[in-house]
Every structure is written in structure tokens, then in C-alpha cells.
Write a structure and sequence with these properties.
Blueprint (H helix, E strand, L loop, with lengths): L1 E3 L13 H10 L2 E6 L7 H10 L3 E5 L11 H8 L4 E10 L7 H25 L3 E6 L2 H10 L7 E4 L15 E5 L9 H6 L8 E3 L21 H11 L4 H15 L12
Parallel strand pairs: 1-2, 2-3, 3-4, 4-5, 5-6, 6-7, 7-8
Length: about 270
């Protein structure tokens, strides 16, 4: 069994063939998929997919690029759903900041404010976080620590190989590893991977983005989680079956609601 802990099945690029994509993934052993909330306008469709398929779940949150959409009342409505198992995708992304100094500062401030609110919301409703961090290691770590995010834990989605974030493993945070691991320029991630406690590793695709080799440049999909697993198993000197079982067990530990699809062999 494989769990794809981060897959944007609600993305427009899947609208024409989403059922076929899901079926293909399931037949290849991807028997659990989590759709992270990134755009509030897509949450309804993510919820629909989660209720259409027993092995699909979703999360509700606001991506830092869409911070202007933040509406706690709407998020709370979705978070009450038993198939909504996490808060996120939330976090900080400083990759595309304005050049003007004042505008840059204002953008950072609003992102931090919205991230802090989602950390507090996760603690209140006792659901883990799905955290997006890009070019914002220091502030992200600070907000997670100050916000006592260890009370609910979560996953650092698309872990960026920063050693500065590794100690979050001690605060019940997991590390999502996706297609980037297969890239030729993934030297830092390859070097850091063995430093992550094995019991804190999760598989993800971030589909339709970050497609693993040899399909880089094409649309990513949950079936390609197998390619990430193969590369991770190779680097950690594990069998692919061991890697599947390890990461699935980790996913069940973090996302308790996934127990509904847990196989007796895991």
C-alpha cells in the first residue's frame, strides 16, 4: 500500500479524466490520497471527490499565495467534515515577493498573520497541519514553535532539504518527499534524506506539479508516487515493499482518519 499525502486532484488539469487517474493509481497500489486545500474555491470539489471515493480524503486551508481568500468561517465548515483530516496547505512562500521594500514587508506580514491563524485553528480543532515552506525557513519554523504547533504536528510538504527544519521531527512533524527527489539537481535533498528519522517520512506527489523522472515536464499524477518510493528505497537501502509499509504506517500515525483504509498487512 502507498499513501499519496499531497495530491491536488481538484486541479483543473484533472477535470476531464479524474476518475481514470484515480482508478489507475488505485490499481497500482496507491490506496490512500489526501487532497490539500490551497484555493478556497476548489474546496467544494475536493470534498466531493473525498466522498465519492472511500480511500480519498481532503484538507482545508489557504495557500500563502491566496492569503486574501482567508475566511475562517468557510474553513470551519469544511473542517467539520469527517473526511477533512488536516488544516492546510498553509505556510509561507517568499519566492515571489514584490521588489518594493515596503510592499515586500507587508506581504511577509500578511502571510505570517494568516499562517499563524491556521496554526491556532489546527490546535483548536485538533487536526494536523499540512505546511508549505518556500524561501521562508526561519519565519516558518519560528511561527510553528511560537504557535505551539507540536500539539497537533503535521507534515512539511515538499520538504526543501533545509537542515534548519530537521529538529521539527521532535515536534511531531513529518517530512513529505516527492518527485524532486528524482531530479538530477536534487543533491541537497539526497544528502539530507538519511538524516530524517525514518518514522517521519511520508510520500507525496504534489500532482499535477513536480513530476518525477522520467516523466518530468508532463502532468504529474498519484500513480507516480511509486517512482518516488523506488528512488527513496534505493537511497535508504531498503526494499520497495519495506518503504511502502514504512511510509504508510507513518501516514496512519499522523493522519488518524486514514485508519479507515488501513490494511491488515500494515
Amino acid at each position: 500500500m502507498i499513501i499519496d499525502t499531497h495530491c491536488h486532484l481538484d486541479d483543473a488539469r484533472f477535470r476531464d479524466d479524474v476518475d481514470a487517474v484515480i482508478q489507475k493509481a488505485y490499481e497500482q497500489g496507491v490506496q490512500g490520497i489526501i487532497i490539500p486545500g490551497a484555493d478556497i474555491d476548489d474546496l467544494g470539489y475536493a470534498q466531493e471527490l473525498a466522498h465519492r471515493y472511500e480511500h480519498i480524503f481532503f484538507a482545508a486551508g489557504i495557500h500563502p499565495y491566496h492569503h486574501e481568500q482567508y475566511d475562517e468561517k468557510i474553513l470551519r465548515t469544511f473542517l467539520k467534515d469527517e473526511k477533512c483530516i488536516a488544516v492546510g496547505e498553509c505556510g509561507l512562500d517568499y519566492f515571489r515577493l514584490p521588489e518594493d521594500a515596503e510592499e515586500k514587508h507587508a506581504e511577509k506580514q500578511i502571510q505570517q498573520e494568516i499562517f499563524a491563524k491556521q496554526i491556532a485553528l489546527a490546535r483548536e480543532i485538533k487536526k494536523p497541519l499540512i505546511v508549505h515552506i518556500r524561501d521562508a525557513n526561519e519565519d516558518s519554523r519560528r511561527l510553528l514553535v511560537e504557535g505551539k504547533a507540536h500539539e497537533v504536528g503535521g507534515v512539511l510538504h515538499c520538504y526543501n532539504a533545509s537542515k534548519h527544519l530537521l529538529d521539527l521531527a521532535n515536534s511531531d512533524f513529518y517530512f513529505g518527499i516527492g518527485g524532486v527527489l528524482t531530479f538530477k539537481n536534487a543533491k541537497n535533498l539526497v544528502e539530507v534524506l538519511p538524516l530524517i528519522p525514518k518514522e517521519k517520512l511520508l510520500l507525496e506527489t504534489d500532482a499535477p506539479y513536480l513530476t518525477p523522472m522520467p516523466y518530468r515536464g508532463e502532468r504529474n499524477e498519484p500513480a507516480y508516487t511509486l517512482l518516488v518510493a523506488e528512488k527513496m528505497a534505493e537511497l535508504l537501502n531498503m526494499s520497495v515493499t519495506e518503504l511502502h509499509n514504512l511510509t504508510s504506517k507513518n501516514a496512519f500515525t499522523l493522519f488518524k482518519a486514514l485508519e479507515k483504509i488501513k490494511l491488515a498487512t500494515i
